[in-house]
Amino acid sequence: EEKKRGSQKKKTIFITMGEQTANFIPETVLKKRRTQERLKAEAEEKATAKKADLAAKKELAFKRAEKYMEEYKALENEQIRLRREAKGAKSIYVAPEAKVAFVIRIRGIIGVSPKVRKILQLLRLRQLHNGVFVKLNGATLKMLRLVEPYIAYGYPNLKIVRELIYKRGYGKVNKQRVPLDSNTIIESVLGQYDIICIEDLIHEIFTCGPHFKEAANFLWPFKLSSPTGGFKSKLLHYNEGGDAGLREEKIGELVKKML
Known about the structure:
5-stranded mixed sheet, two-stranded antiparallel sheet, 11% strand
């Protein structure tokens, strides 16, 4: 009987010690828990702030897009009014000279002189069916005339500029070709020029704004497909029934076939 009582006492002591051990939590575990809770709270705070910032930027981009649409509509209405006035006065309305051209390379490297090759490199037309936006001035017009047999170019309208950037637009980020699937990509590179969304980029290119050079250089040269139905004759000028050279506003027809 005494042995049984002793064994029962030992058992009760063991159980009590086990309960004390279960309630004890090491200091390192408590520290880790506090750190994890602090990090979790900071992450939640950052996520909330980021969400609010994205919502504000989205609203700003929407407002800018509305403003640009009103501007484009006013410009179109002004041109219609001027045409009507000219027609009423029995004269001819002469539109202002284009500020921007879209240039497409239509021929390869066979038989290209060093001078022409260098100009095509300066225009960033290194591959067949590459396309770029070019600001028109005295220097670029001379360059375009020197390489006319190897390119097709003209003056794009708003619809063509928008379709090119939305459908085939890629940006240059750290010398890498990156798809324009987010406004944050544009803002990270062109935010210092107040270009924070894709509509800002389209507006800067179409209107030839003060930061056209930076916006055009940000856009990777467009990689277009062969035109539907093929070319008529690359060796002849557009005025002679071919494809090379200046085609003014009719560049849109070629671009639609190559998108």
